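Table S2 (text version). Query chain:
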Amino acid sequence: MSSKKGSLELSVNAIVILIIAITMLGLGLFFVNNTFRSVSKQFEEQVKQEPEPQTASSQNPITLSRDSLIVTLNEKVALKVGIANPSVNPWNNTGFVINCSGAGDEGAKVVSSPMFNKRNLDSGDSFVGQYLFTVGKPLSDTYLCVAKTTTTDLNNLTTDTGYSKDITIQVK
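Corresponding structure-token output:
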């Protein structure tokens, strides 16, 4: 009889532990969901506050919502970009990059984790997209950067389109 009682106690303990584990898992998922939702709302607000760039055209193929950025280290930055295709050929997977000059490799670290939704652009077409990035670990406080449009071919090779625009990033 004592073995039946022991097995019953083991089952009750297992059920209690299982209920506690499921409750903790639910609370953990709730916390993670709320945290991501909060970060997402903050970033959406930042993108909404960013001014619209001028309309891109064949005379001005790259337009930016701001030509000069004042940011803090590790800040997430949203920049609206207007791109127009002034060439006679269509651009496949049109992208956007910002390259910064600086002391050694530090210039390359100013813009880290960039994100941009690539699009196909026929000759004369334009669109406005968002370029999202994080400010890396620069040594100095002001960087002269070059914003460029790129295309990607079927072999996944990225090519510079030859169009660029200067942008200044000052890190506080």
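Notes on Table S2: Helices lie at 2-49. Strands lie at 62-64, 68-71, 76-84, 91-100, 111-115, 119-121, 126-135, 142-152, 158-171.
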